Each structure stands twice: as structure tokens, then as C-alpha cells.
């Protein structure tokens, strides 16, 4: 494995921040909610953890997960296809202690 492949294979914490767009209505949220749940269920079915929740403003949410750069990118692409017309969303690599790796099942 070369250095670039090794970097891509290392898991790191990621944060996905989402906020309702100004013109979002409740019907938009109801339309995308089942698709987002399916995406998260797919993630969990692979034995991966994801912590998510809403902020007190009821417009902003955050998900924290551990993944390789490639896995995070693939997840973000799927998420973007589901909700790009309803939510503003941003993916950040989080340089925090890899807490999820302590909690995830070992392969």
C-alpha cells in the first residue's frame, strides 16, 4: 500500500452539519426524512457508528461519524443527492480524539 492509499484507508472523525434552507417547508422535510433514515440505517448495517441530533434552534443538525476519507466522501455524495434542495450541509474532518473507534465493534 503506497502512502496515498494508506492516508485514504485511515479512519478519522467527521462532522456533517446541516441547516434548513430559508425556503424549506415541512413537506420538504417529510419527503427527505425516510431517505436520510435509510442512508443512516445502511451505515449502521455495515457495523459503523454515527451519532446525530438536532440543535435547540430546530433548524440545525449535526452527525458525527468515523470513516476513511473515501467512505466519508461517498456518504456525503449520497446525502447531498437526498437533501441538496432542502438543506445546506457541510462535511468537515474533525481533529478530535477518535472517540468512536473506542466504541465501535472490532473486526
Strand order of the largest sheet: 2-3-1-4
Report helical residue fraction.
Answer: 40-55%
Q: With helices defined by DSSP (H or I, 4 residues minimum), what is the helix count?
A: 4
CATH class: Alpha Beta
Describe the structure.
It is a single chain. With 107 residues, the chain is of the alpha+beta class. It has a single domain, classed as Alpha-Beta Plaits (2-Layer Sandwich). Helix content is 44%, strand content 27%. The protein has 4 helices and 4 strands, in the order H-E-H-E-E-H-E-H. It has a 4-stranded antiparallel β-sheet. A hairpin with a 5-residue loop joins strand 2 and strand 3. Helix 2 runs antiparallel to helix 3. The mean pLDDT is 86.
Observed structural traits:
alpha+beta, Alpha-Beta Plaits, four-stranded antiparallel sheet, 4 strands, 27% strand
What's the short version?
By secondary structure, the chain is α+β, with helices and mostly antiparallel strands. It has four helices and four strands; from the N terminus they run H-E-H-E-E-H-E-H.
Set out the fold topology.
Blueprint: H1 3-9, E1 12-20, H2 26-45, E2 50-54, E3 60-67, H3 69-83, E4 87-93, H4 99-103
Antiparallel strand pairs: 1-3, 1-4, 2-3
Helix pairs in contact: 2-3
Amino acid at each position: 500500500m503506497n502512502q496515498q492509499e494508506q492516508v485514504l484507508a485511515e479512519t478519522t472523525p467527521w462532522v456533517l452539519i446541516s441547516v434548513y434552507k430559508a425556503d424549506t417547508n415541512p413537506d420538504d422535510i417529510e419527503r427527505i426524512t425516510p431517505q436520510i433514515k435509510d442512508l443512516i440505517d445502511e451505515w449502521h448495517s455495515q457495523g459503523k457508528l454515527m451519532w446525530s441530533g438536532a440543535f435547540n434552534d430546530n433548524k440545525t443538525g449535526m452527525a458525527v461519524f468515523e470513516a476513511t476519507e473515501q467512505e466519508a466522501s461517498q456518504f456525503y455524495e449520497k446525502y447531498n443527492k437526498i437533501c441538496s434542495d432542502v438543506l445546506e450541509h457541510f462535511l468537515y474532518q474533525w481533529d478530535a480524539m477518535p472517540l468512536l473507534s473506542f466504541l465501535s465493534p472490532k473486526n
